[in-house]
Design goal:
The chain is of the alpha/beta class and 354 residues long. Helix content is 39%, strand content 25%. It has 14 helices and 16 strands. Helix 5 crosses helix 6, helix 9 runs parallel beside helix 10 and helix 12 runs antiparallel to helix 13. It starts with a helix and ends in an 11-residue tail after the last strand.
């Protein structure tokens, strides 16, 4: 039993069953034992691989999008590029490599990174030392006086959610408890929630709510409204209302969310419909939702792969093609990963239609 599992069980025994959001917070962000606090989870030796780690082509496409968006914002002489959850710094490094030929951009950009993991901050410092980034532990700490471009790849999925199941025409919260074998287990609260079940929700269905994710998004939108700018979030997600998407992964395999406490990643699919509605409520322009495959192809990733293959060996060429398929194949990342963009004013953003 891990130290964190002991802490969680003791809290449950003293305070009663724990909502999933609080459980995710502890598993991922506990200051001593949290998953993201204690390790580098990326790559073949970690638990999962993200798109920037698959191929440089991903970061190059995002870099091209950011430069184009900066130009469409009027090419401000000073602006902030904020990345939320920068991993090992791979994505930002690829972005800046693309940007090195655009001197006005590199002179104007101020790189800011939202990160809570000491392990990953160290990796980011090594990868991005040439660009003098600044690090922040929360959005409230980020100082802004200039236009903003904010990006996040596989960031929103790790923000905590809560789950509710329709049970006898009532919504009851899904909670974490300790069963008779003294193991952590999922169950339902004994008391009905004060949240009304949506009219079209069926018996037994799961409703996922993400108040922390929505508040994070609202803060981002407030920053954009105040300073002008645009944002891009890429994540696995959906545009629907109901379903159980909570998942844990360890060693590239899915496991029960109550196993390997503090040693497995816990995420949920992003409810992009809620985020899009929030944009409209806040008066920020949003551009719908597109598949990662369509987005990257519209930016020219297939052509970029062909260019890379021209100077590649046969083995290298095969890997480039394999990596391309990983990013845009509809049976790989291309379909399940979605791309959402938003801006303080309507702009002809690449990859989207106004």
């Amino acid at each position: 039993m891990s130290a964190l599992e002991t802490i969680i069980k003791n809290e449950i025994l003293h305070n009663g069953p724990m909502d999933i959001g609080h459980y995710m917070n502890l598993c991922l962000g506990h200051p001593q034992h949290g998953y993201y606090i204690t390790r580098d989870p990326f790559g073949k030796t970690g638990d999962f691989v993200t798109a920037p780690e698959v191929s440089q082509m991903f970061g190059e496409m995002i870099g091209a999008w950011i430069i184009d968006t900066w130009q469409k914002l009027g090419a401000p002489s000073s602006f902030t590029l904020l990345e939320c959850g920068a991993g090992r710094g791979t994505l930002m490094s690829d972005i800046m490599r693309v940007a090195k030929s655009v001197s006005d951009f590199t002179n104007a950009v101020q790189i800011k990174l939202l990160e809570t993991s000491p392990v990953l901050i160290k990796k980011q410092q090594e990868a991005l030392s040439a660009y003098s980034p600044k690090w922040y532990g929360s959005l409230s700490e980020v100082d802004l006086n200039d236009p903003l471009i904010v990006i996040g790849n596989e960031f929103l999925d790790a923000l905590p959610i809560r789950q509710f199941r329709k049970d006898n025409n009532q919504l009851k919260e899904v909670v974490i408890g300790v069963d008779e074998d003294e193991k952590l287990s999922l169950g339902l609260s004994n008391q009905p929630s004060d949240i009304d079940a949506p009219l079209n929700m069926k018996e037994g269905e799961i409703l996922e709510l993400a108040p922390i994710r929505n508040q994070f998004m609202k803060t981002v939108l407030d920053m954009l409204k105040k300073n002008r700018g645009a944002g891009l979030f890429i994540d696995y997600g959906y545009n629907q209302s109901f379903g159980d998407t909570l998942q844990a992964i360890k060693d590239h395999k899915f496991i029960p969310v109550t196993d390997h406490v503090g040693d497995a990643d816990i995420t949920s699919h992003v409810d992009f419909l809620s985020l899009r509605k929030l944009c409209k409520q806040e008066g920020v322009h949003e551009y719908g939702l597109v598949k990662q495959a369509d987005f990257l192809k519209s930016l020219g990733i297939v052509t970029r792969a062909q260019i890379l293959k021209q100077k590649a060996t046969s083995a290298q060429s095969g890997k480039i093609e394999k990596d391309l398929n990983r990013l845009v194949g509809l049976d790989e990342m291309g379909k399940i990963f979605k791309v959402m963009a938003f801006s303080s004013e309507p702009l002809p953003l690449a990859g989207f239609s106004i």
